[in-house]
């Protein structure tokens, strides 16, 4: 982490302490959109300085915004300025990066806070761009905002690649579902009972032999040799022989050239997506390997290349978290419960699930592996279960607890720059 990031974190923490009721701070709320943003100028007392300023999403628009900032800071004798953004899609990123590079403090208000605060401003539920920008400024003036994390370029690229992998994986899953639940279920439904993880021979059957009648036109040995590149094991040959046998009595719909073309295109698309995912995963591993923290994370049991990269990208700058409670909120592992009236004593706290779902899922998988394959985490898991084995859902709850523990351990290793030690489990 460089000195500039340290200074930004310190500046944000000082800002949170002094902003309420401050008349020395020019607070700018920005309602973000694709082509133009709406700005509202105010102070920490909630007084309006300027409203309805339109900022084009261009270099000229950014210059105009900063010229207005300079004018009002000089006119009203403001000592400092803070920009509050609404994180709409990716449209806020160019402006935020430009402002941070110019040395300005940038924060953001969460969408949930913006939604809840909207009616409190004037008692009405109506929504417009001018009101939304004033809403953001009002939240910032109350200190109800978050630190805008703009890490170094390498870390941003790692986050983008992980997001790309997520999108490709979703497309890959959709392609597999389309093959199995549309093509196979319609033209060769008997094949579904032999389906397992879209094995290579299954895809070959879908591409070349989705019409069961074409399978029985070949001898069984010819069919097996065309589907598999090698002879395969006895188990595989027995499975393909069973497919050849049921093809003679298939109840699948009649097919034509259109079906064959669709099958070829979908299977080719699946292979293409698999290749793209592989390339992205290689790029993620190569990029993550350039961070010294990556090796510390990989030393944690259950943390493979992907889980380590996801954790590294999510935490980023370990020093931006002051305590483990802030860290657990990042992944949605923080506990919450609805307690009111008679239910106060009986309400059972559960994790909020408000944070990064990808990080939470990756850590749960790591906890699942570590608690079953490594002695230290297995012993810790058994201690958590001791005397509670018969409780409903207790194993899943304890795995979630281990996942949260792993996140804290990962954060500790990144801060201390050291590898995993079993002692960390007890801290």
Summarize the amount of helix as a percent range: 55-70%
Task: Note the overall shape.
Answer: globular
> Largest sheet at a glance?
6 strands, mixed
Q: What is the tally of helical segments?
A: 17
Cα Rg? 28 Å
Number of strands: 8
Which spans of ≥5 residues are poorly predicted at pLDDT below 50?
Answer: none
Distance between the amino and carboxyl termini: 25 Å
Order of helices and strands: HEEEHEHEHHEHHHHHHHHHEEHHH
Strand percentage: 5-15%
The spatial strand order of the largest sheet comes to 3-2-1-4-5-6
Structural class: alpha/beta
Mean pLDDT over the full residue set: 89
Which keywords apply here?
alpha/beta, six-stranded mixed beta sheet, two-stranded antiparallel sheet, 58% helix, 427 residues
Write the layout of secondary structure elements.
Elements: H1 3-18, E1 25-31, E2 36-42, E3 48-56, H2 59-76, E4 80-85, H3 93-101, E5 105-108, H4 111-122, H5 129-141, E6 146-147, H6 153-187, H7 200-209, H8 212-216, H9 220-227, H10 234-247, H11 257-288, H12 292-298, H13 305-315, H14 324-331, E7 335-336, E8 350-351, H15 357-373, H16 375-385, H17 394-416
Parallel strand pairs: 1-4, 4-5
Antiparallel strand pairs: 1-2, 2-3, 5-6, 7-8
Helix pairs in contact: 4-5, 6-11, 6-13, 7-11, 9-10, 11-13, 12-13, 13-15, 14-17, 15-16, 15-17, 16-17
């Amino acid at each position: 982490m460089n000195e500039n990031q340290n200074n930004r974190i310190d500046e944000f923490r000082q800002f949170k302490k002094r902003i309420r009721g401050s008349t020395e701070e020019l607070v700018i709320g920005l309602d973000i959109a694709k082509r133009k943003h709406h700005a509202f100028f105010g102070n920490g007392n909630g007084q309006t300085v300027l409203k309805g300023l339109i900022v084009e999403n261009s270099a000229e628009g950014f210059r105009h915004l900063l010229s207005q900032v300079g004018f009002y800071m000089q006119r009203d004798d403001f000592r400092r300025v803070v920009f509050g953004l609404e994180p709409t899609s990716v449209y806020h990123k160019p402006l935020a990066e430009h402002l941070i590079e110019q040395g300005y403090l940038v924060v953001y208000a969460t969408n949930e806070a913006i939604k809840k605060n909207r009616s409190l401003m004037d008692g009405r539920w109506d929504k417009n761009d001018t009101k939304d920008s004033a809403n953001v400024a009002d939240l910032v003036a109350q200190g109800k905002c978050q630190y805008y994390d703009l890490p170094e370029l390498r870390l941003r690229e790692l986050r983008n690649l992980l997001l790309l992998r997520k999108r490709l994986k979703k497309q890959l899953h959709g392609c597999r579902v389309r093959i199995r639940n549309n093509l196979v279920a319609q033209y060769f439904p008997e094949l579904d009972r032999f389906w397992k993880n879209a094995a290579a021979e299954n895809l070959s059957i879908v591409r070349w032999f989705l019409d069961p009648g074409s399978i029985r036109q070949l001898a069984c040995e010819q069919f097996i040799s065309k589907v598999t590149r090698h002879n395969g094991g006895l188990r595989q040959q027995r499975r393909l022989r069973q497919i050849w046998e049921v093809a003679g009595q298939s109840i699948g719909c009649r097919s034509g050239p259109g079906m064959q073309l669709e099958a070829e295109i979908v299977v080719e698309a699946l292979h293409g997506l698999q290749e793209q995912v592989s390339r992205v995963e290689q790029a993620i591993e190569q990029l993550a390997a350039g961070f010294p923290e990556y090796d510390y994370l990989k030393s944690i049991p259950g943390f493979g290349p992907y889980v380590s990269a996801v954790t590294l990208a999510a935490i980023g700058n370990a020093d931006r978290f002051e305590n483990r409670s802030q860290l657990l909120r990042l992944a949605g592992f923080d506990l919450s419960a609805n307690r009111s009236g008679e239910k106060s004593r009986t309400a059972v706290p559960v994790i909020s699930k408000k944070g990064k779902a990808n990080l939470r899922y990756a850590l749960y998988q790591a906890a699942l592996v570590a608690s079953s394959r490594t002695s230290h985490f297995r012993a810790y898991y058994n201690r958590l279960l001791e005397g509670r084995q018969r409780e409903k859902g207790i194993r899943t709850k304890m795995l979630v607890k281990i996942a949260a523990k792993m996140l804290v351990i990962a954060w500790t290793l990144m801060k201390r720059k050291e590898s995993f030690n079993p002692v960390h489990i007890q801290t």
